[in-house]
Write a structure and sequence with these properties.
The protein has 21 helices and 35 strands. With about 850 residues, it is α+β, with helices and mostly antiparallel strands. Among the domains are: about 100 residues, Beta-Lactamase (2-Layer Sandwich), CATH 3.30.450.20; about 130 residues, PHY domain (Beta-Lactamase, 2-Layer Sandwich); about 170 residues, Histidine kinase-like ATPase, C-terminal domain (Heat Shock Protein 90, 2-Layer Sandwich), CATH 3.30.565.10; about 120 residues, Response regulator (Rossmann fold), CATH 3.40.50. About 35% of the residues are buried. The N terminus is likely disordered.
């Protein structure tokens, strides 16, 4: 079918010369891993695969015409009938049974049941493993990882990773269909040593229309072994001469043509899963394996469920992109309104708005033609050339955006501007005369990497006109002349939104806009007056500080130091206010900032207790000076003069909403009341009553200085205690040199979701690539084949430990971190090489900290 493995839909009886034909009569063979029985409505056997008869020890020619109950146990037939009833009443396409004892002999099978025309089809696959597992439980955490991605491309890439985890295939690609039916690999996850297919494109004929229709009906196709035997149906046709319709059969064999494709690529097993959007085929998950690989029906069901959920997520993200485009268009509309609100026209405002326009549609040049005037920037026609072009644009339908990526096909004179322009989007912004904003794109020599020549996808084979496998898959380059990069749907939607916005701006710039400008001017005058008032107040305050700080200053140096301290206190308070955008700010933070400047890292000498009040900006600036003077006096005469003193501050919001601050100093030298009042004491005792109408009471006790300050409720609100000064930190110590992670990392973890989380964390802190392993054997193979620079090892891997891997890494001097969910692992770790240990569940901070320790140890 195609070298990408599009699921094997190209069955022998599909007529590739007629793409409108429905693919309903398909090859009557079954892949060797499953057997098939078809019955009539009364469960009379019509067809049986040869291997199914062999399993029952029967001749298929002898059992056709018998009743199903004559071959299978009564309970099995009863349960199959029940499933048919449930499927029929619910309208479901089919039913499934997992791990079912069909023959009551202890052998377990996965069973698929569906209706095909007038026939019931039962398919049985021997259970490949009897170990208990919950495949469906894997789907939710994997789809949750997809949902967290911000863009369609990142979500698609994460889905490729998830599907590789679910399926175990060497290569998983996401293949997206274009409007012309061709496709492109937009995401890929593959094992080491495999050639990347990311970016390859495939002609539309690789997957004909009838094959794409089949993908919409049968969403998962598995080829477990391209060299495996197939089992024919007996009889090949019914009495009416018609083959059994196996369109929805899960074990249906595929065309030898497609198998030949896969062999040419060195692929031994493949699987494809449909990605649907609004009921149409948006793309495929295409999976390859370099050896035969069987994925049992229960795991395939989980994969189908993941693909369905992914389709919902994809649709949600695509719709989110459209909403983002709409928001951006509205934002552009608002910005253009502001730009043009002064009444100037587009030509006069062009240089101002050109950057805004370029954000709407990606282009090499942009031009405005308004009222017979023309201006342009970037790669664009001259004024004379555009005047001829505009006559052509005027022939386009009125009031619509005109777009082309090959203007020469419609406008022969475009050859004269071909060195600058190959495609354009013309946005009409008026009715009469015809004015435009036009976006231009240069010719692009598009290096389209085709997986084979798109002009010759079909050849004549030994069976007539059919799709013959190409023997070489080297990409070749198709050079496109006189053509620009295509205008995508989102760009055209943005251009239409721009058209509506500009028409509104150009045609409705009225007296209402003039009124808005007048109001804005009045508001600006008020803001200037308010700014002038604030500046005068600040200047008066600084003038007072300069004048009053002279009091008590013996030398110029002491005067400068005191004045500098007070101004710096105001600056720190202002910084905190501006960080909070002049909103109420935490006084706790202010106290910590002021006191810690004198503590030299001895934070325990300051204890702040009580509530977490926020002060209004006008009170906060005042209290900045008061706190500064309290701290300065304590450092000069009180508890902070030596190493034994302590300062306690209790913050209490009273029942009436007022803030009571109790400042207590203990353990310092004996305090005596001053014989005179300096400016610092004046700030402490008089500023709060004068500025805030509060109260201040000070006491010079032998045990230490005390102050009680009350701030009225109108300046106070309640916040939340977040004491960053005393909080612990998971980050590495700033005293040690930071060691960066780089290169390829290894994660050995038997839980797939935890492994993916660890991979994300390591990638986020510098790893260029992360290899995942779930067993000791896989990890050792990766170590020998890759240049590993760092590893995270889960200690317990179910029935084994990671000890051999740790020993190998230690021998190679490769740093690693051990991860565990057990609290006591000392008995295990005695055998391990010395390494940092991170406890599960780990966070990005805790794993980063241990990674830093491991790397620092090596250096």
């Amino acid at each position: 079918m195609t070298q990408l493995d599009k699921g094997g839909a190209a069955d022998q009886s599909v007529d590739l010369t007629n793409c409108d034909r429905e693919p309903i009569h398909l090859l009557g063979n079954v892949q060797g891993y499953g057997c098939l029985i078809s019955t009539s409505s009364d469960l009379m056997i019509n067809h049986m695969s040869a291997n199914c008869a062999e399993m029952l020890g029967l001749d298929p020619n002898e059992v056709v015409g018998q009743r199903l109950i004559e071959l299978l146990p009564e309970r099995t037939v009863h349960d199959l009938r029940t499933k048919l009833q449930i499927s029929s009443s619910s309208g479901a396409g089919g039913s499934r049974l997992f791990g079912y004892d069909v023959l009551e002999d202890g052998r377990l099978f996965d069973v698929s049941i569906h209706v095909s025309g007038q026939s019931f089809i039962f398919e049985f696959e021997p259970k490949s493993s009897e170990e208990e597992r919950d495949d469906m439980a894997l789907v939710q955490p994997l789809i949750a990882r997809v949902a967290k991605k911000d863009t369609v491309i990142s979500a698609v890439q994460e889905a490729a990773v998830a599907l590789q985890v679910l399926s175990g295939f060497d290569r998983v690609m996401v293949y997206r269909f274009a409007q012309d039916g061709s496709g492109e690999v937009i995401a890929e996850r593959h094992a080491s040593g495999m050639e990347p297919f990311l970016g390859l494109r495939y002609p539309a004929s690789d997957i004909p229309k009838q094959a794409r229709e089949l993908y919409k009906r049968s969403t998962l196709r598995l080829i477990a072994d391209v060299n495996g035997e197939v089992s024919p149906l007996v009889p090949e046709r019914n009495p009416n001469g018609e083959p059994l319709d196996l369109s929805l059969s899960v074990t249906r064999a595929v065309s030898p043509i497609h198998l030949e494709y896969l062999r040419n690529m060195g692929v031994e097993a493949s699987m494809s899963v449909s990605i649907l959007k609004d009921g149409d085929l948006w793309g495929l998950f295409a999976c390859h394996h370099r050896s035969a690989r069987y994925v049992d029906y229960e795991r395939r069901t989980a994969i189908e469920l993941f693909a369905q959920f992914f389709s919902y997520e994809l649709e949600r993200k695509l719709e989110a992109e459209i909403r983002d485009e709409e928001r951006n268009s509205r934002a552009l509309h608002d910005r253009l309104m502001v730009r043009l609100s002064a009444g100037s026209d587009l030509i006069d405002s062009f240089e101002v708005i050109a950057d805004e326009l370029s954000q709407v549609v990606s282009s090499d040049g942009v031009a405005v033609y308004s009222e017979g005037r023309y201006t342009a920037r970037g790669s664009a026609p001259t004024a004379d050339e555009f005047k001829r072009l505009v006559r052509f644009l005027n022939t386009a339908p009125t009031g619509q955006v005109f777009a082309t990526d090959r203007i020469i096909a419609n406008y022969p004179d475009a050859e004269a501007i071909g060195d600058r322009v190959a495609g354009l989007v013309a946005v009409p912004i008026s009715r009469t005369p015809r004015d435009y904003i036009v976006f231009f794109r240069r010719e692009i020599a598009r290096s389209v990497r085709w997986a084979g020549n798109p002009e010759k996808p079909v050849e004549v084979g030994p069976n007539g006109v059919r799709l013959t496998p190409r023997k070489s898959f080297d990409a070749w380059t198709e050079m496109v002349r006189n053509t620009s990069a295509p205008w995508i749907e989102s760009e055209l939607r943005a251009a239409e939104a721009l058209r509506l916005s500009l028409i509104e701006i150009v045609l409705k710039l009225t007296d209402e806009a003039n009124a808005d400008r007048k109001a804005a001017a009045e508001k600006q005058e008020l803001l200037i007056a308010e700014l002038n008032h604030r500046v005068r107040n600040i200047l008066n305050l600084i003038q007072g500080l300069v004048s009053q700080s002279k009091s008590g200053a013996v030398t110029l140096e002491s005067y400068t130091k005191v004045l500098d301290g007070r101004i710096q206190s105001l600056a720190r308070a202002h910084d905190q206010l501006t960080r909070q955008e002049w909103a109420p700010s935490a006084i706790r933070n202010l106290i910590h900032v002021e006191v810690n400047a004198f503590l030299n890292g001895q934070r325990e000498r300051l204890v702040v207790t009580g509530d977490a009040p926020l002060l209004a900006p006008e009170a906060f600036s005042t209290m900045a000076l008061v706190i500064h003077e309290l701290v300065t006096n304590s450092a000069k005469y009180g508890a902070l003069t030596d190493q034994s003193g302590r300062v306690g501050v209790d913050l209490n919001i009273a029942d009436d909403g007022a803030l009571v601050i109790e400042w207590r100093e203990r353990g310092g030298p004996v305090v005596k009341a001053p014989t005179r009042r300096g400016f610092g004491s004046t700030i402490i005792e008089r500023t709060v009553p004068f500025e805030l109408n509060g109260t201040v009471e000070t006491r010079f006790k032998i045990s230490g200085f005390e102050a009680d300050i009350m701030i009225p409720s109108r300046y106070v609100s309640e916040g939340v205690i977040v004491d960053k000064e005393d909080g612990p930190s998971d980050a590495p110590s700033t005293g040690s040199a930071m060691v960066e992670l780089s290169g390829t990392a290894l994660v050995l973890e038997d839980n797939m979701v935890i492994a993916l989380d660890a991979s994300d964390i390591l990638s986020g802190i510098g790893a260029s690539d992360v290899k995942l392993a779930s067993s000791v054997e896989d990890a050792l193979e990766i170590i020998e084949g890759e240049d590993i620079s760092f590893a995270v090892l889960d200690i317990n891997l179910g029935n084994q430990t990671s000890l051999p891997v740790a020993q190998r890494l230690n021998a190679l001097n490769i740093p690693f971190v051990l991860a565990t969910g057990y609290g006591d692992v000392e008995s295990i770790l005695t055998e391990y090489p010395d390494a940092p240990v991170v406890q599960k569940p780990f966070t990005s901070e805790s794993l980063y900290k241990q990674t830093h320790m491991a790397l620092a140890k090596e250096t």
